[in-house]
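for ur thesis appendix - Serine acetyltransferase. copy paste whatever u need, i formatted it the way the template wanted (i think)
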Amino acid sequence: MNFLSRLMEDLNGARAHDPAARGNVENFLAYSGLHAIWMHRLTHRLWRNPRLRLPARLISQFARFLTGIEIHPGATIGRRFFIDHGMGVVIGETAEIGDDVMIYHGVTLGGRSLAKVKRHPTIGDRVVIGAGAKVLGPIIIGADSAIGANAVVVKDAPEGSIVTGIPASNRPRRPEERKPAVDPAEYIDPAMWI
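the 3d part is after this line
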């Protein structure tokens, strides 16, 4: 997929996920979540070359300064990822994020170890993570799950889970809770599960 196609895919994703999104030009110019994702795509490409890791880190820190969103260049992020509001988001080096994932402000995908191993979460496709949630350690959050606002998640959650609480526990999503976040008429705010 070429650069322009990926850019349009991100802009369309922003419009699908955010009812306040008024148009592609405004979103292109004003959405810090999109800016952070675009900068991450650049820094991740640089990060794959060991000789370019310092420039990747410097650019990622400049992006953090501009957007308030910290994404380590080593993190792997899928397509149509969207960060709504964004301020305070932290995504660690070994985090893996699937396609069509949406996260809100204040979310941390962090580690629980100082060892140089996989220490950050793996987030499946179509997961929604509510504001302030902390997902910590090399855990797996299954596809089509939703994490409630301010949850502290330190254990795996199977596909199709609702994950809430401190420490978080999970339960299966009921059929009426399985609506995709990308359909504005069917949107379910993850904060409703706290």
